[in-house]
# Entry
Amino acid sequence: MAITVEHGVFHIETANTLYQMKVDNFGVLNHLWYGAKTNCTMDYLLDYPDVGFSGNIYEAENQRTYSLDTLPLEYASGGVGDFRVPAISVSHENGSCALDLRFEEYHILKGKYRIPGLPAVYAGNDEAETLEIVLKDTATDVKVILKYGVLEKEDIITRSTVVQNQGNTPVTLNRVHSLSMDIPYGEWEWIHFHGRHTKERQVERAELLHGIQESSSGRGMSSHQQNPTLLFCEKGADEKSGFCIGAALMYSGGFQTQIERDQLDQVRIVMGIHPGTFKWFLEGGDSFYAPEVILSCSDHGFAELSHRFHHVIRHNVCRGKYKLSKRPVLINNWEATYFDFDSTKIEKIAKQAAELGIDMMVLDDGWFGKRDSDCSGLGDWVVNEKKLQGGLDRLIKRINDLGMKFGIWMEPEMVSEDSELYRSHPEWAIRIPGRAPMRGRYQLALDMSNPEVIEYLHRVISKILRENNIEYVKWDINRSICDWYTPTLPESRQPELPHRYILGLYELLERLTGEFPDILFEGCCGGGGRFDAGMLYYCPQIWCSDDTDAHERTIIQYGTSFFYPISTVGSHVSAVPNHQTGRVTSIDTRGTVAMAGSFGYELDLNTLCEEEKQEVKRQVKTYKKYQDLIYNGQYYRVCDPAEGNLSVWEFVAKDRSEALMQGVIYRAEPNELRRRVRLVGLEEQALYQVEGDENIYSGTALMAGGILLPAIKGDDIAVQIHLKKCQ
# Structure
């Protein structure tokens, strides 16, 4: 069994890790250990002095070394003498805010728990176990249930929290984090993934300061600016060595990760819904369910940790027909036409794409309502037949006759003020009465907490999908959300709206993906502004960034790879000069970079010269040749783009029979040696041959000595080396 309990100590064991907690003499649940298997109860490390101004619980009497302000706690609550950041904070009817949680009972269940209304890791009863630990407040009937899902073979533990009000008086939840973890010893650093629109998931590594450091989003979405993931590592940890912990929140709304280094150099990590845009009014008899955090740790560096997250996201988060299967190579018209298109122009792009071997034509923004710019039409999901003469069905049939699939763009969560929907239902938009709303991209957000909005969107979207042979939907959202107010809630419950918005979004996606299981849904939020494990539960791939510049994409995709598998990354070849940076890179470089993802094109292929068209044809064949290896192989970050002059990544088959190394050399320099790159993940004693090279290399040689990259002239030059084990 992965979960055992002995003498008040809870042991959660996976293939290579141990997670340990203990109920102490006062019923307080202490966190003991998360790391390598020790075959030992780790409570011998709990030896604390009498720290001044760190008080003691009443039952401890004069045991001044016992303080909630210093002990490593499993789930920290506020108002009871622990002055570090809490995981949970409540307000009672009498105005007090204390919550003193003590152990009541536990349950061990076969299979993996589910969370009503929220995405969660799933697994069969023979693949997972669940531990539930019930904590109860000493003075009220508030209970907190800590849930742990254990996927033993995958070295994955999930965390979630349920708050129950079993009393008769209401309680206000001010903060309910999903993860709380105290780490008493060690010298630590943290890595988070910051950015902005068109520059997402930039890697930043920092030492811990005394006090609180935070990565968060209050934008109504997980955001371009921060990602709801955390890497926590010992100093010196790198891709191949060192202890590290990873945490990924399965939530697409505002989130908060806080790390506090306390007065004793201990560390507390909390992660969950952002309390700045959250409160929940919990009536007697009600329960609140917090989203899930996926946890793993490794003694062997970041690469192994990434592999564990890649595996669980592909196999136990993503769902449906496309979770493990090949994706079609697509062409999207957005950067080719923007809003200026008609049926003839789209058919011309599709015809050229079909001749070059591309599988799918995706029609982006502008096909519906009065939509000739981004200032009108959102919400009116009716075909604009002035643009698409004969309607959508006629266009799709012509695309299908070319042997291509057809996909379409939608932005269901938004509304334009210049739209029939807004004129009919202005109350459906999120805005505060008596205040002018903030616009983003000249649009407002629909109130996804309103059941009428969900029913409307379900009706109009499902009608389009039923009546047309659509095999792909790009689901976009193009603004941050503020002005939180809904007429469907009373004044006291308005702070519930941001979370209810996300619950409404998930409900709609669950209904649509269930009704249309053969459609590939791709998530998008102005690119990668909602790239999180919650969205991947419904959309097995996400448009990585609106920045399609190949140079910039190597950096964005590098950061994305720490948690998210390559199959989830939407990546396209676009026109040059690039529309975001003005940079000119070769079509070879653009293709190589885009192959490290779900591959496609975003330009008018008719504008290419014949040589470039033949290169596109070759790229499509190359990608399809290596797609199994790219999706199913182990992914390695070989060279950090922030260090040196190049970015290199590698895919290695699970049986280590072949590998594909790709990369970009950023700048040529005069009189330089050829660059050497050490490959990883190969079989040491095996012999490998590079495609197109008569020489034979041992795995040890390629990993210890490395391989020489081609000599280059110019900037942003792509390299690609495929090697196979000799028979």
Remarks:
- The first helix runs from residue 301 to 316.
